[in-house]
Amino acid sequence: MNLAVIYHFQSSQDEMGEFSPAQYQVVYSFSGMGFVAGNMLKEALQSISENTSTDLTFQTLDELKNFSLKLAEILDEDEVRLISVQDLNVGIDGARDLSSFRQIFLGFGESLKREGVSRKKNFLSRFF
Amino acid sequence: MKEALLSDDPVLPGEQWFCYWKTSASLWESRIRTLDTSKVHYIPVYWGFHAEGPDQWDYGHYHAERDLKRLVEIFTQHRIKFKWVFPLTPCPLMPNGGTPVYAARHISVGPQGVHLCSFNSQSNLQKMYSYFEPKVFMAFGSFLKSFKEFLIKSNINIPVIGHQYFFNESGVLYSFLYDRSLAFEQGFGRYLKQNGIEDLEDPTREVKLQEEFINEVHGLFKETAKAALKNFWEGHEEVCFLGASPKETIERSLTTGKSELGYFIDLFEHYLFARKISSTLLRHEEKKGLLDAVLKDHFIQGDAWLKDNTWSGLCLFELYSPKPQDFFGQGLHQHLSANYRWLYRFHHEDFKESDALKIVHAKYLDKTHFTLVLKSFLLGKKIIIDRNSIDPELDKRLGLFYYENNLKVESVKFQSQMTLTQLGDGKLLIYDGTELNKENYQVFWKKVFEVMEVDHLHTELSDDVFSLWKQRECAHDELNYLDVRRVSLFNPTSYKKQVKIHTQGKFAFMRLIDPQKAQAKSTGQVIDVELLPQGRISLDFGHFEEMR
Fold it and tell me: How many interface pairs between A and B have CB atoms less than 8 angstroms apart?
């Protein structure tokens, strides 16, 4: 199973009552090897932004995608699957056991492939 | 022994539970025959299973698997003691969380917006349906009435224990009642209307009201069950399931699964809060090895503090506050974790009559607790109180207490303004937590525990080595020790680990017990322990009063 990033898209309100517009917040990120460690998330975040905050919240979907692809690069994954919480819940609704639950992370959401990885591998695969 | 061999049996998921709905009724007897007659077993009542329709409850007329009378007869025939367990929240052991199909309308939404679901030990995905759906409460009440009538009519005088179920996600404990689905939103809307609250713009107030609403609903299910089954009601318990949170559900579905170290961290976190735990959702291969050994040997009935025939959990410190966060900023947790790991316990309601040093936050003190605390001091116990936010009325009463009992109060400024009072063995130390910070807390707590004369061995071990301390009285043939202490050390990692235990001149190393992939060497006042991966060992120490 490749890297998966589960995200929530929602607005929020701080303690002063100030509304923030809807943002993309990473809820979980994991691959077949387990949940992604905090330092890896931080590394991916800081490599795409000068912001030193560890808050995994993005204003646009493109920013979330950039972060996710950077994470895939750090973890040496060919692709990353972006799944919203809503899509995950639809998947859970239909799942009954371990096998059908795992299928959620293979079929739901949007799959992002790292540019250049597949082509490079195909070229090299002629020799190795 | 027989139960251990059947640990993959869905009917017998462990911890003396008997899930009758998991097999054909014709096979009940073959399972019951294998049960240990010396132990009490627990039959969770899967109430939704008995629904033949709205307000129609079946106890075997339509389906033999619902024939609880026959089930009881077989248990009785084989002299197996048991109690009923009644879920007061959704239960991850049961399909739909236990809710009848006709009432299961909205899957609960967990803290991260993900549907609340858990894998059971057969890798079936159990989804929790919202208890905020009005049909659920109606069905719940209807079943309770029917169940009570059934028990009376069948002359079954077996006690019922109510169970509230919890899960832990990223260090925060949540009830399985937790929900943010449409059912919750609608229920919350009704609650606001009933309480005359129309404008809710303040988000802090909204969160507070949501908490109050959830607590009320929690209490409603409990009180309804208690009232309905009062002649049979034996009380209620809170049970935390390992591996049950939405995050763990994802983690357990991965090839690597959840690590044993991860389970140990959760298990010991629950231990600090004296929570009853259950590992019945875990597959056999998830809890094999060291985890299984710890659960079986130490977490008897899910609680490692419980006394067995000889040993009881050693608790040197009891922390009393409405929330653990009340002590944040004082370095108390850090100091205890570094120097007395797994030797303390958090309490937020009950006040224990034990010999542990009690550290009480003023926020915990209402009139009742205040009286109990002072009584405990008069009975010779050691108490530390953080006076920050103390009720002025109680503060006055404290002054009166000193006067009426003719107590001498010593005042001293050491990192914090403190007062110390002694009466016989009792010591009462009061300080102000707001005066502590990361610069001074280490020195403060070290001194305070010296003053309060806390005697224990000093242990050096890394964060990923776990220890459980137990205590017993000394036997007739042992030397004149005050007590005997046993430490069991566990290394769930893939690396070799070293532990050093310093006897401090007040403890004598007595013996090694059952070293597995471990060894220990005593040199003077230090015991050096080496634990290989998956290693464990226990060591006994006699506690004597004076230095030899």
Answer: 70
